[in-house]
Amino acid sequence: MPATFWEKRCTLRRKSTYSGIIPVVAQQLHRENIERVVKEALHVSGVSVHELAAIATTVKPGLALSLGVGLQYSLNLVKEYQKPFIPIHHMEAHALTVRLTHPVEFPFLVLLLSGGHCILAVAQGVSDFLLLGQSLDIAPGDMLDKVARRLSLRKHVECHSMAGGKAIEHLAQSGNRHQHMFRLPLQQYRNCDFSFSGLQCLVNKAIIQKEKEEGIQEGEILSCVKDIAAAVQHAVAVHIIQRTYRAMLFCIKNSILSSKNATLVVSGGVASNQYIRKGLQTLADVNDFAFLCPPPRLCTDNGVMIAWNGIERLRAGLGVLHSTDGIRYEPKAPLGIDISKRVEEDSIKVPKLKKKIRWLAS
Predict the structure, then answer these.
(1) Suppose 95 and one of 73, 100, 110, 277 were both cysteines; which one would form an S-S bond, judging by CB atoms 3.0 to 4.6 Å apart?
(2) Which residues does 156 contact at the CB level (< 8 Å), separation at least 6?
(3) Euclidean distance between CA atoms 235 and 144, whole angstroms
(4) 119 contacts 134 by C-beta, under 8 angstroms
(5) Can you tell me the distance from the alpha carbon of 154 to that of 157, in angstroms, rounded to the nearest whole number?
(6) What is the DSSP string of 187-240?
């Protein structure tokens, strides 16, 4: 788990300093801290490396330079202490984290929302996933961060120390989303894919127009910034909810999930956004799906989810390697078997959400 254990802390530090992820900086931070963090984790747990059953490490997908640091450190431990090695898929770990905190059985529908990913899949087993849809461009967390930077929210008195997505969520609470309407992406496509780059362009155009109207320069705070934040957050939420709704209908129609005990699991950093979470909770309720989320501290990148995925694989006897020859990290890696074409071929029309979910009409 070394690569991911430090990942969140490094990400926060490099984001706050550079307003974005700088791969070489992330790599250096990993190198500087990985050994200390691993030693601290072992000390706090009261377990020695000799007592470990195996060593689990993120090998895909992610920042190549950071993955490389974690993988090399882990392989050195494996060689020195002669331990089995369990390579972990980062998104698989996010998907299965809920099984650490809730007694959920396979199969279940899982929505992974983060700064780097947006994925809808069915978890059929520890290492058995059906990919229903994913983002065609950027992820929702990345988009919200970019909008926050364009709005210069670090200069806003209420959120100068907040990450971009958190600042958007905070300001949106007291904004009026009805003051700005943004066209939702991919409305003509009846699939479960997502797109956020076009929405970001529409938001940027609206910001430029408002700056002209208010006679201010880029970098200054708009008087309507809270309304824009509310409208952006709402558009992202509705887009995510629409695609998730179609995934629910597809899974029930094709008997991939049982209508009697279907479950929607939502994980990833953006899953901690309470507005988006409330909308998904309501969607699950009206469709008789159980709704589960890991606690917020386990939604963002963390070492616990990697360790838990290792435990799940160890128990199931899946992907436990006694030879690490040929092990490589993979910056890009799909999750499971891609059946997104089947989803599109079914061409399921999603009922109007305002009729089904009162929350959206308020």
Answers:
(1) 110
(2) 167, 171, 221, 225
(3) 11
(4) yes
(5) 8
(6) TT--SS-B--HHHHHHHHHHHHHHHHHHT--BTBPPTTHHHHHHHHHHHHHHHH
Helices 140-150, 197-214: axis angle to 10 degrees equals 10
Per-residue tokens: 232:
């952006």
| 266 closest CA partner among 113, 40, 104 | 113
What are the DSSP calls for 48-108, one per residue? -GGG-S-EEEEEESS-HHHHHHHHHHHHHHHHHHT--EEEEEHHHHHHHTHHHHS-PPSPE
Residue 60 CA, distance from chain mean position: 14
Q: Could you tell me the pTM of the whole model?
A: 0.89
Render pLDDT for 290-343 as a digit per residue (tens, 0 to 9): 999 999 888 888 899 999 999 999 999 999 999 999 999 999 999 999 999 999
The per-residue pLDDT for 302 is 86
Which among 1, 58, 59, 2 is positioned nearest to 30, based on CA atoms? 2
Task: Say if residues 163 and 145 touch (Cβ distance below 8 Å).
Answer: yes
Instruction: pLDDT band for 20, please (50, 70, 90 cuts).
Output: low
Q: What is the pLDDT of residue 205?
A: 97
The answer to whether 24 and 67 have CB atoms below 8 angstroms apart is no
| Helix H or strand E encompassing 147 | helix 140-150
With a CB cutoff of 8 Å and minimum separation 6, the contacts of 350 are 190, 242, 245, 246, 249
Residue holding tokens 């989320």?
293
Show the CA angle centred on residue 158, arms to residues 156 and 161, nearest 5°.
Answer: 80
Distance of alpha carbon 193 from alpha carbon 240, whole angstroms: 9
Report CA-CA distances (Å) from 45 to 39, 52, 84, 159, 296. Answer: 10, 11, 20, 36, 22
